[in-house]
Amino acid sequence: MTFILVAVEQELEPKDLPGFRLDYTGVGKINAAVKTLAIIKEFSPSLIINYGTAGRLNERLSGLVEVSRFVQRDMDATALGFELGQTPFDDVAEIDFGDHGYSYGSGDSFVTQSPKLKTDLVDMEAYAMAKICYLHNVDFKCFKYISDNADDAAHDDWASNVVHGKELFIEKIQSLQVRPTVTI
Fold first, then answer.
1. Is residue 184 included in any domain, yes or no?
2. What's residue 73's pLDDT?
3. Cβ-count burial of 145 within 10 angstroms (0-12 exposed, 13-18 middle, 19+ buried)?
4. What predicted TM-score, i.e. pTM, was given to this entire model?
5. Contact 121, 73 (CB under 8 A)
6. Residues of the chain where predicted confidence (pLDDT) is lower than 50
7. Which domain covers residue 8, as residue numbers?
């Protein structure tokens, strides 16, 4: 069984992918972790796909991109001797689901200037979903539509572009030949 998780309805609605299990995590790493864990516990999916929007730090990227490496961009325990992005006393730092995608920094802030930890893209949920899937041995794929440049105009750009990636994501799902299941 495959689940598609999205942060907010503006990014994708069930009517956009009839027959697929689609649910919303809400905004932020905690909400994403709670929802992802609940889906795994209740439905035991073999694959979770995250779709949403992202700010880009890598200026060469545009459109819909696949992400496969995830870090917490706002975890900063460097004063304790840990690397930027490393959670103290946690064996899981960067999560890597293969070399087929770009790097991603999730954090609990909407990025309007370049963060300290450099990645290709930024958002507020994907690291949490990736970590929960990794810890529970669930396959994870992540596709993000670049909605903004993670700069001082990001909030306006995101609001203008949030709905534009869904058609590209629908095409991607069809090309992956992921079969629909019953919608919850």
1. no
2. 87
3. buried
4. 0.87
5. no
6. 183-184
7. 2-176
